Amino acid sequence: MPAALDLARDAADVTAQLVDIPSVSGAEKALADVVEEVLRALPHLTVHRDGDAVVARTDLGRAERVVLAGHLDTVPIADNVPSRLDGPRLYGCGTSDMKAGCAVQLRLAAHLTAPNRDITYVFYDNEEVEASRNGLGRLARTHPEWLAGDFAVLMEPTGGVVEGGCQGTLRVRITTDGVRAHSARSWLGDNAIHKAAPILAALDAYEPRVALIDGLEYREGLNAVGIEGGVAGNVIPDACAVTVNFRFAPDRSEADAFAHVQEVFAAAVARGATIELTDTAPGALPGLDRQSAAEFVAAVGGTPRAKVAWTDVARFSALGVPAVNYGPGDPALAHTRGEYVEVAAVLEAETRMRAWLA
């Protein structure tokens, strides 16, 4: 059993304690156990557990409830555990993504006994692997009431800048059919790769939309990310498939996004192509027009920007909870062998979160 967490130490020291308890996706139990233990010892919190996800709540009857969420798991360790302090930087697996954010949550949970809003602290498992195993997704299905709130902050690494909401994403597979033949007698066949030309032409001519939502600029993108076709060097191919990824602004629903993709490729479909939706995930509105969000931005400082990627804030959005991303780590360092977090950034993140909640 790992040693108990010492939340009397500063957030950077708590980050080191968390890093020193390995928690690769699927093996978070030891870390979840010590997080649960330290939270259950705090009388002002009510604590729940589901698998290796731990949820702690204040119940002070405040007018608003905010949710602070962070994942406990990391990518596989790359000879970077235990943690190592080198001057102003703390090195180790998960320092940036996202044990520094979890450390800030734990410090707030321990020391904010009478916050100005009720707070739900969520520590969940299996974020770094396939969505079907995601602990936050599991909680949303089995205990959605645990995640209820007026506003949520996912403490993913953002370099200490608020990143609002997230983009949605979908993938489609657009297939063309032909007739196989010997390439020396090509007139006897029907080349499926040639019939993909309207698909590629539509992509080449496409002008992506820029959506301004709550003052944040979301840049959409529609791109081919794969193409399959061909049988042999002397055969006219009878099948071709183009995989297209659409990253869409959070003011579109998944259905709207798919309808837009179908419209873009309508000419190809009219010529016999078929479109299959293979993967989809919704975006999340930033909710920066909410009073709690505006106060959060004012407290943490900086100029908010759009999250031009998909994150778990989308799960909160699906539950009707506006959410943003904010954390002390540098996202460019996530998953790297030399991953680190600036000690000053961790301390500053806690200070700014306290200013908002105290």
Overview of the structural elements:
Helix content is 28%, strand content 26%. With 358 residues, it is α+β, with helices and mostly antiparallel strands. The chain starts with 10 loop residues before the first helix and ends with a helix.
According to DSSP, the number of beta strands is: 19
Structural Rg: 24 Å
Weakly predicted, low-confidence segments: none
Query: What number is the mean pLDDT?
Result: 95
**Which class of secondary structure composition applies to the elements?**
alpha+beta
Main features:
alpha+beta, 26% strand, four-stranded antiparallel β-sheet, 358 residues
Compact overview of the structure:
This protein has 358 residues and is an alpha+beta fold. It is 28% helix and 26% strand. The protein is built from ten helices and 19 strands.
Outline the secondary-structure elements.
Elements: H1 11-19, H2 29-40, E1 46-50, E2 53-57, E3 65-71, E4 84-86, E5 89-91, H3 95-111, E6 118-124, H4 135-142, E7 151-154, E8 163-164, E9 168-177, E10 181-182, H5 197-205, E11 210-213, E12 216-219, E13 221-229, E14 235-236, E15 239-248, H6 254-264, H7 266-270, E16 274-281, H8 291-300, E17 305-306, H9 313-318, E18 323-325, E19 340-342, H10 343-357
Parallel strand pairs: 3-6, 3-7, 7-18, 8-17
Antiparallel strand pairs: 1-2, 2-6, 4-5, 5-19, 8-18, 9-15, 9-16, 10-14, 11-12, 13-15
Helix pairs in contact: 1-3, 3-10, 8-10
